[in-house]
């Protein structure tokens, strides 16, 4: 066991943690329609406690009825939550794991759609996502906000939580007050940092008075809002000093970005290198004596250990790693780190579903989000069957893992020389290599469970019948569907799996210059790839607006790439498919203006469905 | 024939020809119909509607198109409660049943979508599973089971959905049915479903109603259903049904079925008339019971006179007036009483009633905030015992002030309304002058007329000074609804705002809509008007269209990837982009405003950070505004009984102004408490 620091205990005020791995706060959309915590909450957190997490911090609990930015927010101000809190804390305490509640008011980062009340904020500055002008709160309303935090802290204490975390970081009225970008007040709550921090200091005092000395209190601070005129690290360090000077706080948690304007940096995708936000806890830890939590794409325990060893932080927040594998800690601690189901930071089912008001899941772990229904729990079978699976893509391998875990005898036939199917393609484009971890995770787990793989086998009916399996699972993937306008023999139309690869330049006479693709992820990357290789990339995709991106973030297609927004493929002038001379023409979806043709001269490698 | 004549449907008779059509509400309790549904439908039945069609229930577990989509297997108790409530009020109740097929969502079920063929749905872009023979049989059976359960629960019948979002239409259409088997005979599936439903209904009650909602024009003539084919189809399927509701639209035209006010009301009437003729010709006007197959028209019909004329002209036999009934549940009663002018108008704004949205907003209405909230909101229009009738002063004659005055007057108070300008309506009247928004003015007219009717003393041209005294703000309670003011450009984007040259020709959207004269060209001869729209709502687009229609060259600058980013909610996103593009308006997407120079703006690409300049003759700021709260602040410093409402709290939309105004008036009678002048309902936690 090389991770000496990571597995060492640490005290946060009155609470002692067994190790340094924190399952820190994140939205789940598991709350009920009426804003109460659910059995799924309890099962979800309990699974991570069982897996060895040192500390669990729940998702936010709203402190006031004016705060209801998304439907499935826990209404901490409603006393009816306490029964649900008890279920959560009892389930987690069964494993001896401490659990804190994060309490918050989202302030201006909200709309009135659900609350039907004006949005409250320091100043009438609309959030760039919600775009609703908030009401500037009065002195009496500030007192009401502070009282709301105290009330909810009392509910949490009564519900059995071991501590409270104040989210003052990425989506919070406290952040709104702290940030010069959103606080334009001229009273005692605006202007100097001391004034902007006044609400925070008042809340700390009120919450501490409510919970007493037997529970921990933490404050989560944003280290860089990544917005014009917003909080940066220098001021964040000063805020940390103010927090420490209250003498009422036991630890500091950190984050980066604002949930609405710079969300992409809070839960960075696989494009952003792990440890990208380490500068924040590192700077804060130098300035204060309180324990500091660092977050930001901790993929594995070695990386986490290094962050502790180098003195960047005292604790590491591992959220997605434990969403993907609840046993992240237990596996590493017992020397089985290779068995960990590594998170890909694909963000598809965790982050991606949150804004869509859907419950949190994981593309790799079908049990995530359905712990309370027992999904993913191995069943012991009475009859051990021979299971034959055709195809070693993600579906085939998941079927193999599930069947083998239940005790069946599993064989996988794969046509290619290696597993992974189309996931290998996804992993082959720039900045998407971590998709390859899915192939690694699945094939490692399958082999560990004794699954037999046979590669290079083209399974047909005779082959399958010859093997006489009890159960056959077909997971043979998909095949290209040529567009209706494609001439049958046009070699310049290639499948996306070949576009940009070595075969593409051979397959098309003039190399891959342009690709017409749907606006999905693989398509976008594929269009980008030739450019990286020094060819002109030209993406044409349906123009669905993407999430907010930021100039400091290099996520989207390179600015130099020309994007054919809203372009629709139209048949050539004769309007018929099939002729050898047919050249796809593109026209604008809005006004029908021709937007150019994929000319013979360019001889595009095009059109993939 | 007129709108108020009874209509025979099966063995039932609807008391009139006004129908509350099926629509998504998000009122459900999970996938079950809820008490909120019951209250919602009861209120419409009590208002005199002839027939209520309940929100569609999915007939089969393979269909879960939106989170709160009712499921037939869980719907029986709700159907029974709704039927009982509406029957008490004299309305017929029909249960809509359907399956969204490839237009559903796999997000909730985590199972493949079922569709006739593997045609990716154009909006979700998800490839569905082509239904196997057993899947088809299961869905046909499920339709029969759902119909049986609905009629057993006391509903008067069922309506099968072959409209815009439906598996049945997907089988009927060449766009989505590419099968090579017997189901390639496109009407076959619809006929199988209707035959099974008819048989199931007949088992329980042979006189019960079977209706069909049919997309008679998919607006995709290359392979979709066209009106001529639909007429033939309708005639062929009419043997199973008592009525046909004619709709239009499909996968390529999601916004065409229930468009906003940019589309002329009654746009579907000709289509309905053609289907009606075809069905009557084919059926000779006779069904086994002797009644004709009724054809129900739909499509932005919100005006009772238009509906009445359509029935009179035999374009249709009945009319769905769904949105009009959201705006005024009492519409049929008022029409029957000869008080058409008292019907609260639907603005066709679609801002809060179109709730096919992942966030699950509750259906409601900008002009009647109680819609959808029948269980929780006090009935502001019911008689109430005001503790002591007061003399109430409302300052500001925008919609917040007018609604506050109206509700206060309904509560028995003596109300005086003081408006600074010569015109009522505030920003709504201004917005109504913009392209495509004329209907907004109907709300102002209606509120003003109701205030007059209720004896509100409306005084225009009265400016109340900050101390309130000279304007004669009396001893009684005061409601301040003084609206909003403009702010410096870019107030929200950086602490210092965007630097603006003092000599630049800068206008607010409101000034432009109010008729400000814009310079024709700058010194360099540039004639363009730059419109900066950081909101993405209806106003920026409307201003740009208005300027373009007046012959100006317009450059539309938006930080978003698309014009009118927030218009998805109202269904105007794609149409707005079409209109703007076709008007020749230049669009600068994903662009931030950095500085307004004398005659050009400096903008920045959001992704690349590249800056450049765009010259202008005039610069129009269509951004957010600041609350006009000076009078409130001044008065609140001297007395406690001052409330405020609408943009004076925070500049938002008509919906919030109406809600604030109503609540401020209710708070006078103890139905709410004030926080910094804002009325909070007592029901909130």
Descriptive account of the structure:
The complex is a heterodimer of chains A (609) and B (685). Chain A has 609 residues and is an alpha/beta fold. Chain A has 19 helices and 22 strands. In chain A, the strands form 6 sheets. An 8-stranded parallel beta barrel of chain A has the order 3-4-5-8-9-10-11-12, surrounded by 7 helices. In chain A, helix 10 links the parallel strand 11 and strand 12 (315-317). The longest helix of chain A is centred in the N-terminal third of the chain and has 20 residues, at 139-158. In chain B, the strands form 8 sheets. In chain B, strands 3-4-5-8-9-10-11-12 form an 8-stranded parallel barrel, surrounded by 6 helices. Chain B has a 5-stranded parallel sheet with strand order 15-14-13-16-27, with helices on both faces. Chain B folds into 3 domains: 7-342, Aldolase class I (TIM Barrel), CATH 3.20.20; 391-485 and 627-681, NAD(P)-binding Rossmann-like Domain (Rossmann fold); 495-624, 3-Layer(bba) Sandwich (FAD/NAD(P)-binding domain). With 685 residues, chain B is α/β, with parallel strands linked by helices. Chain B is globular and about 75 Å long. In chain B, helix 12 packs parallel to helix 14 (440-453) and helix 12 (399-410) runs parallel beside helix 19 (654-668). The longest helix of chain B has 20 residues, at 133-152. Chains A and B meet through strand 7 and helix 3 of A and helix 17, strand 26 and helix 19 of B.
Instruction: Describe the global form of chain A.
Output: globular
Give the biggest beta sheet of chain B.
8 strands, parallel, barrel
β-strand number of chain A: 22
The main sheet of chain A comes to: 8 strands, parallel, barrel
